Amino acid sequence: MASKSFQDEVPASRVNIRYRNKKDGNDEDVELPQRVVVLGDFTQNNDDFVDVEVEEMEKISINKKTFDDVMKSMNIGLDVNVDSHLKKDEEINAKLKIQSMKDFSPDSIVEQVPELRGLKKVRGLLNDLKAKIITNKQFKNELQNILLDDELKNKLVSEINEATKSDDDASSSKES
Question: Which residues pair with 95 in a beta bridge?
Answer without folding.
Answer: 79
